[in-house]
Amino acid sequence: MSERLILYLAGKTSGNSRLEAALRDWCDRFQPGRFRLEVVDVEKWSPKSRPLPVLAVPALALGATGRMFVGDFSNIASVMTALGCLLAAS
């Protein structure tokens, strides 16, 4: 069973697309089958459904633990380490 990673972004920008691709690539290369990445565009979030669970974007949440990373995503391995995910390789 795969763990849920939720990536919160604001809009469809080239930077957001690169971040999503980098996260998917890292998961596929270093933790194949372990994670299921879901992308949430906060600009399309309906406040009527429930409050937005993030205050800043981009943010990445590990669904099982509720841990969240907000900040510099330039080093995906460091982001995953901060979330408490074990690395097979870096």
From TrEMBL:
- Top-level taxon in the UniProt lineage: Bacteria
A GO BP term, please?
Answer: rhythmic process
Task: Read off the InterPro entries from this record.
Answer: KaiB_domain, Thioredoxin-like_sf
**Boundaries of each KaiB domain copy?**
6-85
Q: What's this protein's name?
A: KaiB domain protein
Signal peptide region:
none
Which organism encodes this protein? Solidesulfovibrio fructosivorans JJ]
